[in-house]
Amino acid sequence: QVQAVESGGGLVQAGGSLRLSCTVSGLTFDDYTMGWFRQAPGKEREAVACIKWSGGLTYYADSVKGRFTISRDNAKNTAYMQMNSLKPEDTAMYYCAASSIWRSPPYTPDFHYWGQGTQVTVSS
Predict the structure, then answer these.
(1) Which residues of the chain have pLDDT under 50?
(2) Separation between Cα atoms, residue 1 and residue 120, nearest integer Å
(3) How do 92-99 and 68-73 pair as beta strands?
(4) How far apart are the first and last CA of the chain?
(5) pLDDT tens, residue by residue, 35-59
(6) What's the angle, vertex CA 13, arms to CA 120 and CA 48, rounded to 5?
(7) Angle at Cα 4 formed by Cα 68 and Cα 41, nearest 5°?
């Protein structure tokens, strides 16, 4: 059984930083693309950042380029997303997900394994 557990969300003021973590069990972690997605109330889920299994390729949504950095530690079965210069519009539930496919831009239906999400709230 695959489990993905996110942590690191919280309440932060605009301009602040947070680091999200996602630890995965039940699959061969370094065979999978890892992605971070977010969904704000009333909006569709969107891909924020993805990283290929080797870590050599990444994708970022235009809205987070230069502010967010995705990384992974395959020895720890964990993916990370460092979020800097946070804005109120970054407020959302953030989910990590795993896919056996690499596409850029990512295709959400490729991601079969999802975490429960961690809330990020940025106050103005």
Answers:
(1) none
(2) 27
(3) unpaired
(4) 40
(5) 999 999 999 999 999 999 987 899 9
(6) 40
(7) 60
